[in-house]
TrEMBL record, chains A, B:
Recorded GO CC terms: cytosol
EC numbers: 6.3.4.21
Listed pathway(s): Cofactor biosynthesis; NAD(+) biosynthesis; nicotinate D-ribonucleotide from nicotinate: step 1/1
Presence of the UniProt keyword Hydrolase in the record: no
Domain of life assignment: Bacteria
Protein name, UniProt field: Nicotinate phosphoribosyltransferase
GO molecular function, a single term: nicotinate phosphoribosyltransferase activity
Chain ranges of the Nicotinate phosphoribosyltransferase C-terminal domain: 352-457
CDD domains in UniProt: NAPRTase_A
Catalytic activity: 5-phospho-alpha-D-ribose 1-diphosphate + nicotinate + ATP + H2O = nicotinate beta-D-ribonucleotide + ADP + phosphate + diphosphate
Length: 469, 469
């Protein structure tokens, strides 16, 4: 995408890069892990999203003449600027498949490259993956409570500025059917949807004339907004008139939309009235401050809503607003690296690593991923990440490696996946996860385990680092 | 900005536009108001931001060949596509100055144009203004509790995708000094700031060597991150060594940064140790999950922090995540328009309007803005917006008109304002607001009043519309 350049980063990436550059950083290999520490929304899983965009961006990443001229004014030196002028990402990316379910503390993406490039891309990687994973996860929660409804992203107007663009993409990965966002539709192949606003009705002197004008212009995709004056007294009766006029012309009214008031009550009454008129085929769409909790309640009340338009809470990932993903150095200069912390949960996992998903002999998830060193083959025991005297044997489990190489020498290895493919994959992967991990309150905790070798390496490095203090 | 095109909108704007187009909408004047219903963060004011970007975008708005080709696949008809091919925004924009303090329910921006263009731009206007106003307001709250500290936006990695770009701009308007976001620095003239991450320290075999390498590369802007191993036992002593070595070379260490642990305690101890070594000039920077409440507490505890790096909570506008701004039709086809609602607070203000800010004869804000019809001169009485039997006389008040024309025939009328000018203006306007409106808990409510003429018009239209139901 033409918006992002090498300057889509934090300043400190460039100040560090300059130091590395003057110390032969181009020849210094580094391995960084992307992972997060907590699933959003106090939930039991996260949907990983943003990978295909990240690959596209990394393939094209460069510093324009305008960038270099700007950086010159910021005190970077001439040799380093010359280096940036020719900069390209030349590294490898290993990643979990986009759309997969992922869990805290274990690597989701592994970047291998020279330390300069690996550092410069940190911020954009976090920016793209944290946000899309947040929104895909939110979307999947809404899909969980509304498995049979059409779900449409209406959030652009309240989205966080240009964040709207990738929010609409991520919503599809999490299970949404369509978006109102035309540009996202254009660029990501998302089905776009949208009919009319209150202003349209108001701009006519009466509701019926407005409905008729719209139906005439878009007879094959006509959803009438029925709450401008009074839903049951005016909007629905006028919609019925128009629906019958459309029938005479050989068309069918697609639906009516409720955007205010008590949606459960209004949807039921509207359904009754439509059905009495033989308009069983007219769908009911609803919008207005919907989120997974409101939708769950509406459906539990039996509200006959076919189409849901969800805005703010979806595209801003409310109430969390951010996934806490981080990017940590795991290996450089031939040595595994660790970052200590007083908080045990913040001590990083050193070395070049792989992650395996465990399944029993019936192919069911056992609810644990195990992290190993990259050169390990199958393992049959895993250790608790913080209480390393606790371990668990799993001699008969199937082990699926989750990190696969998706870029090499800065180039994409596989063909671009369509959003539809990613959505389908995500649905299959989430379906494997037992319900107890998906409930909203106190979900079951998916386990992380470390291999013996990784545990030993980590313990050794912790001792070494403590000696430095 | 080259990213945004006419497709940066909701699909329904285009479906409505097509209907308008086929009904001579090009010749149908319309007036829309942008306003919001609730200040974010349960606060007593909102900082209005995003206007300069909006003007730039509106001046350049068009549909590319790629856009038209895409829309052709979406069922729009050929004549309408031909119209979009030549589309330009040709309307007028009246607006409050960017950076001003604004309050719920009264117009902040007024758009006048033909109904097609006024409708197509709705979504992008809301998208740009809602978000930047949210973030500028958040930034101003942080500035209020830390009037003397350097405040730096560190939020890019946790920002909502590309939303990071305008978040960094809005933070400056709200009173921040700098950002880590290089691209925002390049495009908006924001001072950028940033030195090193933990990975930099970890990539060396010991902390002192890392510090020395960095100091050598950037001796005139060197801030050392001191918490990688142990802040007081390792980081600060090593920083002191490097500071003294720098002094011998004629340089001064700029600062040390704390990024974990108890920031109040560590800042105090670090200050003591640095001062004992004669390094009073070395600043203390702190980061890690800061927001206005944490910062207030740190400073109340006497933490000697000079520089604050604020990330997630700033750039995502946590916990609100969105400003609830809306865009409502007020006038078309020669008639003022109103939107009714069962909720009195949601009934719109009809007609082409102006807003006046009231000051007493000492030039002090009296805590009220009054909304009038656009052709009214000064008024001396205002009516409660929902309880129209309540009124207030203000015979001796100064009245400042807030909505000024900033675009005409789709062209900018004034020269571009620099971010620094907008920030300065915002600071002055916020300084006028008494403290009771700025406190975080239950702030005093800034009043809205309607002129007699507007009240009468509104009452008349409410009666007319009710007759339609």
């Amino acid at each position: 995408m033409n918006f992002i350049s090498g300057t889509y980063t934090d300043q400190y990436q460039l100040t560090m890069a300059q130091v590395y550059f003057h110390n032969d950083g181009e020849y210094q290999d580094a391995v960084f892990d992307y992972f997060f520490r907590k699933s959003p929304f106090d939930g039991g899983y996260t949907i990983f999203a943003g990978l295909e965009n990240l690959i596209d961006i990394l393939e094209d990443l460069s510093f324009s003449k305008q960038d270099i001229d700007y950086l010159r004014t910021q005190g970077f030196d001439q040799k380093f600027l010359q280096y940036l002028k020719d900069f390209k990402f030349t590294g490898k990316v290993y990643s979990v498949n986009e759309g997969d379910i992922v869990f805290p503390l274990r690597p989701v993406v592994r970047i291998e490259g020279n330390i300069i490039e690996a550092q410069i891309i940190e911020t954009l990687l976090l920016n793209i993956l944290n946000f899309q994973s947040l929104i895909a996860t939110k979307a999947s929660r809404i899909r969980l409570v509304a498995p049979h409804q059409s779900l449409i992203d209406f959030g652009m107007r309240r989205a966080q500025g240009l964040g709207s663009y990738h929010a609409s993409r991520a919503a599809i990965i999490g299970g949404f059917d369509a978006s109102s966002h035309v540009m996202a539709g254009r660029d990501f192949g998302i089905p776009v949807s949208g009919t009319m606003a209150h202003s349209f009705i108001q701009s006519y002197n009466d509701e019926l004339t407005a409905f008729r004008a719209f139906a005439k212009s878009r007879p094959d995709d006509c959803v009438l907004l029925v709450d401008t004056y009074n839903t049951l007294k005016s909007g629905v009766p006028n919609a019925i008139k128009v629906a019958k006029e459309m029938e005479e012309e050989g068309y069918k009214l697609n639906g009516v939309r409720l955007d205010s008031g008590d949606l459960a009550y209004l949807a039921k009454r509207t359904r009754e009235i439509l059905d009495q008129e033989g308009l069983e085929y007219v769908k009911i769409a609803a919008s207005n401050q919907l989120d997974e909790f409101v939708i769950k309640s509406l459906l539990e009340q039996g509200a006959p809503i076919d189409v849901m338009g969800i805005g703010t809470s979806l595209v801003t990932g409310n109430p969390d607003g951010a996934l806490d993903g981080v990017y940590k150095l795991a290996f450089t200069k031939g040595k595994a690296r660790i970052k200590l912390s007083e908080n045990k949960a913040k001590v990083t996992l050193p070395g070049k690593k792989q992650v395996f998903r465990l399944r029993d002999d019936q192919q069911h998830l056992i609810g644990a991923d195990v992290v190993t060193l990259d050169d390990e083959n199958l393992v049959d025991e895993m250790f608790h990440p913080f209480e390393t005297d606790k371990s668990l044997k799993f001699p008969d489990c199937q082990q699926e490696p989750l990190l696969k190489m998706v870029m090499k020498n800065g180039k994409r290895l596989n063909k671009v996946k369509s959003l539809r493919e990613i959505q389908k994959y995500s649905k299959e992967r989430l379906a494997e996860l037992p319900l107890e991990f998906k409930r909203f309150d106190n979900p079951h905790i998916y386990k992380i385990g470390l291999s013996k070798k990784l545990t030993d390496l980590r313990n050794r490095l912790i001792s070494e680092e403590k000696r430095k203090q």
